[in-house]
Amino acid sequence: MKTESMVFAVAGTLFGLIVGWIIGTQQAPGRVVAGGAPVAQMAQAAQNAAPPATRPTLDESQATPQRNIAERDPKNVPSRVKLGDLYFDAGRYPEAMKWYEEALALDPKNVNVSTDLAICYYYTQQADRAITQLSVSLSLDPKHVTTWLNVGVIKAFGKQDLPGATAAWEEVITLAPGSDEAQSARRFLDNLKAAHPDGAMPPAGAAQVAAGASPSGMLKK
Q: pTM of this prediction?
C-alpha cells in the first residue's frame, strides 16, 4: 500500500462550497442558485461528479509483470495489492476493487488494503458498502487514523451525516494530533464551525449533500 497523499487537490474549496450549499438549502428550501439552476439540479450534478479527471493512464509496464505474477501464484498478496494500487491510480476503481478484494481474501487482517477497498466502493457510488468496509478496518485497528479520516469524509459527503463526520474527524485529532490526517481533519472541522458559528450543527440526514461529491481529505496509504 502506498504512502501517497490526497486523492483530490481541490478539496477545501469543494467542501466549503458544499457546506455553503447546505446552509442555503436549510435557510431557503427550493431556492434557485446562481445561474438559475434549482438546488435539486445542483444535487444531481454533484451526484454525477466523478473522482478526479487528472488520473494517469494505467502503466502497463508495471501492471503486466504484476499480473503475470498474480496469475502464476494465486496466493501472492503483494502482486494483488500492487495491481490494486495501479488501477486505483488510473481511476479504474472496479478493477482496483477486484485486486484489493483478492488481496484481502488472502490477507484479511491487512487494514490498509481494507481501507483502500472502502475508498473504491465510495468512488463507485457504494457509500453504505464503504462505511461497512471501514468498520472492518477499525475492527482490525481501532487507532488507524487514515480510516477514521475517511469515515468522516464518507459520512459527510456520502451519507449526509455531519455529526457523525465531526465525531470521526475529532477522533483523528485525538489519536494523532501532529499527523497529516489531523491537519486535514482540522480543516474540515474549521469549515463546519465557520458555517455554523452558533454551534448548531444540522441533524444527520438533513443536508442533501450528493453522494458522488468528494473532498480532498480522502487519503490512501
A: 0.73
